[in-house]
Input
Amino acid sequence: MAGIDGGPRGRIVLSPLPFQSHLSPMLQLADVLHARGLAITILHTTFNAPDPASNPEFAFVAVPDGIQDAVAAPKDGIGKILSMNAAMEASGCVRHALASILSAGPRPACLVIDTSLPAVQKAASELGLPTIVLHTGSAAVGRLLRSYAMLHEKGYLPAQG
Output
């Protein structure tokens, strides 16, 4: 399903959270969109980056994520995600990478972001790039997220150990 000139019909940028349970669904979505004739650009963090050799038909753009070894070492996934978002927003690296993608033409139709990357959504909004949020978690995760404030108020979170 190519465009009139035989090239891609459009372009979509996808930005997954760098954990396997988030990367896999995002890359599967990219495969489906590419099969429909769209050019795909994957905007990814340097931490746990996807292998471009696995999808040579996609363009890959690495974004420094600010994850230091000290931050990556703890098993606290939420802490890693919060630190990553804070570092990405403070450095402006996501906004710069998106601006480069936008200036390289043709303009992407939208950016598909992971629900856990608000720094990417903020940068896209500042640049006027529409976003679609992909939530890769299960219904159980959704219920947990809705309960997070109550669990925090009752003192169950953060876990004391």
